[in-house]
Specification:
With 224 residues, the chain is of the alpha/beta class. The protein has 8 helices and 5 strands, in the order E-H-E-H-H-E-H-H-E-H-H-E-H. The termini are far apart. Bound molecules: thymidine-5'-phosphate.
Length: 224
């Protein structure tokens, strides 16, 4: 089947865990599936990721940041996402175009229509059929990240995670506006629920939307 699912959310919203859980579920169902992430997923994207996320002495202005994310995305679509969809492999991406609108648009303040045009060119119009938004209070997400950073000694917050609470609130607001404007594509989940609950909600949404591809488990028959 031709199905492209993206996951979005503020820092620490739990989307990477959900990507992993959905990927495992589809593998169990013997559905051909590929998971990827942004920025990354290609040799070029993996080289751009540290440039975008690590703290550095080299300044990176908002426009440079925007173009670097767009470059990583153009490569990912051409090299990975479009060929996989053509082969009827389900694609799950940890972040995609909406991240740029939320972060570089609503939070950094760059022109949203410029971002939308750039996104369209970089992706050649390739849009997710379903976008799962893990809607989480940024304070909660950032606290999760801080405790993770403390656990993995020496692993502090990255360049974007270190932005102000106001910045992250703008990101969340941006996502909420996007979800309101695209109700058919977005599925909004409360990111404070436990991870198993969230996974079940996402599975049910897939079954609701694509009953032929994700049939309900057949209830076991009573013996006798
Ligand atoms: P993550 O993979 O851990 O979520 O890190 C990616 C970071 O990059 C995260 O802080 C969000 C940010 N980002 C943007 O600012 N714009 C984008 O277009 C994308 C894909 C990510």
């Amino acid at each position: 089947m031709r199905l492209f699912i993206s996951f979005e959310g503020v820092e620490g919203s739990g989307k990477t865990t959900q990507v992993e859980m959905l990927h495992n579920y589809l593998v169990e169902m013997r559905i051909s599936v590929l998971k990827t992430r942004e920025p990354g997923g290609t040799a070029l994207g993996d080289r751009l990721r540290p440039i975008l996320l690590e703290h550095s002495d080299a300044p990176c202005c908002p426009l440079s940041e925007l173009f670097l994310y767009a470059a990583a995305r153009a490569q990912l679509v051409k090299e990975v996402i479009a060929p996989a969809l053509d082969h009827h492999t389900v694609v799950i991406s940890d972040r995609y175009v909406d991240s740029t609108v939320a972060y570089q648009g609503y939070a950094r303040g760059l022109d949203i229509s410029l971002i939308e045009r750039l996104n369209r060119s970089a992706t050649n119009g390739c849009m997710p059929h379903l976008t799962v938004l893990l809607d989480t209070d940024p304070e909660v997400g950032l606290n999760r990240i801080s405790s993770r950073a403390l656990t993995l000694l020496g692993c502090g917050k990255d360049r974007l995670e270190s932005e102000s609470l106001h910045f992250h609130r703008q990101v969340r607001k941006g996502y909420q506006i996007l979800a309101d404007r695209n109700p058919d594509r977005f599925f909004v989940v409360n990111g404070r629920r436990n991870k198993e609950d969230i996974h079940q909600q996402i599975k049910h949404e897939l079954i609701r939307r694509y009953p032929e591809s994700f049939p309900l488990p057949i209830p076991a028959r009573n013996a006798g």
